[in-house]
Amino acid sequence: MRNAVQRRNHKERAQPVERQKWGVLEKHKDYSLRAKDYNEKKKRLKLLRQKAAERNPDEFHYGMIKGKTDRNGIKIADRGNPVLSHDTVKLLKTQDASYIGMMLLKTRRAREKLEQELLLLENSKARRLKDDDGKKKAGNHVIFATSRDEQMEIGSQVALKGKRPKSFKTDDDGGGDQSSISVTGLDNPTLKSKRTSAPRDYSRAQMLDLAARKQAKSLQRHRKRGIEGCQSRLKALGVKEKTLVTAERELDHQRARMSNSVGGVNRAGIRWKI
Q: Is the pTM of this model over 0.90?
């Protein structure tokens, strides 16, 4: 039952106010880590002192002559790779420069072409499709009539305007209860397979205007998507071109340093390179 009784929460003691300049108060776990690190370093120093005391001053092996160390005293080991000659390295860097130049030219041409496409898209407006001779396409459409009399009336009106619809459909042909006039495929290839219906009080001019508005919205949407895609690709090509230019410049500096074509001799007679 004693575990069911609420007990006092024992909190860790904080650093006194007069000792806050020394930081957080050290706990037992902090002391354990510090003591462990101190003992490991102590053992390592003891081992090094023992090796130095037992060192043989007459000890010699040929690795002492061939071996090299860096500035920190760490031994530089040979990886076993064959050492290339100076001329071979220069030839390889020349091939690298040719490849980078080719990729840079290819990227630059792609960027210029994409900039022209983006300029055309930004300056273009939503317009209806045209034929090769510059005239607007007539467009195929189907007019639905409710009876034979209405079919003849619509046919006479279209004939007076100089345009002929693709076909007529009436209720007598088995088309069902057709209470509207529908126009499809008006100057838009995407609308050829769809049927746009409207109430009976819609006139043919209103249907043409409605189809033209839908086509304009569709063209505007495709134009916006094309501009966004061109901008993203243009940004990626710009980053790639900048990276290739930096790589080409650095490679040219390396080739110049290898051929001793850059640099000079200072007053003390010491040769320097860039």
A: no
